[in-house]
Amino acid sequence: MTKIRQFSACTRLRRGKLFGKVCCAKRLSLFLVMGSFMIYTMCLMILPSVSDRRDVLYLTGNLQQKLVVQNGGANEKIFGANFQYSGNVPYHRDGYLGKKMLESIRNTAETEQTQVEEPSKQMQASYKNEFLNKINVSEIPFNKSAFGDEYTLNQTRSDIYDFPFTIDGHEICKDTSPFLLIMVLSVHTHIDTRSAIRNTWGRAVDPGVWPKVGVLKHKVKLIFLFGNAKNELGNKIAREESKMYGDIVQADFEDSYFNLTYKTVTGIRWVAEYCQDAKYILKADEDVFVHVHNLVTFLSKREKKIHGVIFGHALMKSDVFREGRWAVSKHAYPLSVYPTYTCGNTYVISGKMAAQIYYTAGLLPYLNIEDVFVTGIIRSFLNAELVDVPGFTHWFEKKPKPCEFKNQVRISATKVTEAMQNAIWEGLKTKEADCFKLVRVKHVRMNRPDSIINTKVIRDQHIFMNDTSGKFYIL
Fold first, then answer.
1. pLDDT per residue as tens digits for the range 113-145
2. Which secondary-structure segment (H or E) carries 428?
3. Where in the chain are the domains?
4. Checking phi first, is residue 73 left (phi over 0); if not, alpha (psi -120 to 50) or beta?
5. What is the pTM of this model?
6. Quick check: 285 pLDDT over 90?
7. DSSP labels for 212-232?
8. Which residues are bridge partners to 82 per DSSP?
9. Does 207 sit behind a cis peptide bond, omega within 30 degrees of 0 on the bond before it?
10. Which residues is 319 bridged to in the sheet?
11. Rounded distance between C-alpha atoms, residue 344 and residue 360, angstroms
12. Of 130, 159, 106, whose CA–CA distance to 273 is shortest?
């Protein structure tokens, strides 16, 4: 009865001119206050989840698939990123993120800075590059007229490649002088990719075995190379993997696609400083499979060149592009055609060239195409030989098969996913038949990326592989 009377009173007020305006104004004011409160509450609830979702998409995109850890289906929030896990999926001890690594990151997350840190200018300013003073410049076999008068070495050396190491990996070659040092240019969040390498062709390092071969005769070492990540999560991953596996090297420069030349030269400099007795250095992208036994067998039969040598898939007379993805300024390289160089997927350089490459890089303007810079330009200034080797991978190769590595001809393959890494590795354990023969093709003019294949692989059509078991069948 009271509510009815109140409603009637309000109705009478609305019928009046003055009182009606007062009542409507109060109701409108109340509506605006309540609406504002609801919108504010929704923003507090929705915006963080949107931000986390973006982190999820970014991180899982780089990991190439969702991180799978047996965690009861619950999510974890590390450094502000919402990691999603699939419940009831057993984790692999050395695969994906791994529970051991997850717990290590989670336990220390609260004590470390969560924001992105810029490269330490103070650290670089106080850094003294003692190794540079140990290089005997008089012994470097400079060919200063390699490109004529249009492109020459600078009179003074720049310090643009003299970055301090934030993870120096000094223990990696402490007690061993490896025949082959493998440096893989990796991305911080590609944890599953590094795990696949360690569990397949990276096993040539520890315990140094190979399918159907047993223990390798030559010592091999492996490092994964990084610059500074754009967020602290990436740097934390690098530190944790360094503790777990002892195969990480990181330097104080921004890790990006444009800075790949910094990354490569820094890795070569690390070999010269911390693994100076390595006879050969393999530079490899992280999406390749390397048949280490075939490579070591090939290198062990090579004669030592006086001024060093580079092995790989050679590209000749490639045009210089001034626009697009492969754009290079005339300041960085004024000529219109590159010298012969190797595809950057995989190539090998003599260990004794490491310090020379590092020093010479500082005498030239920065060029962002690392394979051209190292295996073409610097090689020419050092008067080193480039050997085109059938079996080294290139950009337009077809999907590799295990049997293609059998005759010690195929050395590396590119565009290899984690699943393909494991499939090739398991396939090498089987008794597969010879399923290819090599056909040499005459070199022609090649632009970047390589549009003409230097070698062709002809496969026998009567050999098939079971994708599930990895076994081969001959029909």
1. 333 334 455 555 556 678 988 999 999 999 999
2. helix 418-428
3. 2-62, 64-109, 121-388
4. left
5. 0.70
6. yes
7. TTEE-SS-EEEEEEEEE-SSH
8. 77
9. yes
10. 337
11. 19
12. 130
